[in-house]
Write a structure and sequence with these properties.
Strand content: under 5%
Shape: globular
Helix content: over 70%
Number of strands: 0
Number of helices: 7
Largest sheet: none
Order of helices and strands: HHHHHHH
Radius of gyration: 20 Å
């Protein structure tokens, strides 16, 4: 009888280790994949997270990462659509940092379009000054 208990405890322990070692899909893991250039896997992680019950703030940042992937792939229509969603979410939850992050993506996209990037950059600077967020004021 004691041998069965020990066996069950060992199996339970091994199962818990296996579960804890599995990759957890989070906003951070999606961001890491994006920064490492694994756009396909990052996109899959983002899509799977968007199909779960995430906070509106996390949804905004996930949409921003998705927009970034579209921009990097040259899918401009999809990029602009996702970016519009990010701006809507940012305003809805009054998140100036999310709005500023979206503006930087817009500036990057518009950089080659004469004069259009300047407006987005001016809004970014205004948010940076208003929030005094050290990440924005580099």
């Amino acid at each position: 009888m004691n041998l069965n208990r020990i066996t069950i405890l060992c199996i339970s322990f091994l199962v818990s280790i296996t579960i804890n070692c599995q990759e957890k899909h989070t906003l951070q893991s999606a961001t890491d994949l994006l920064l490492n250039g694994d756009l396909k896997k990052a996109s899959k992680v983002i899509d799977s997270l968007l199909n779960t019950d995430v906070s509106l703030s996390d949804r905004g940042y996930l949409k921003l990462r998705k927009a970034t992937i579209f921009r990097m792939k040259g899918n401009n229509q999809e990029f602009l659509k996702e970016l519009d969603t990010v701006f809507i979410v940012a305003k809805k939850i009054d998140n100036k940092i999310l709005e500023a992050d979206a503006l930087i993506q817009k500036v990057t996209y518009l950089n080659g379009k004469k004069g259009q990037a300047l407006s987005a950059m001016a809004k970014y600077v205004a948010i940076a000054e208003e929030t005094k967020n050290s990440r924005l004021l580099y």
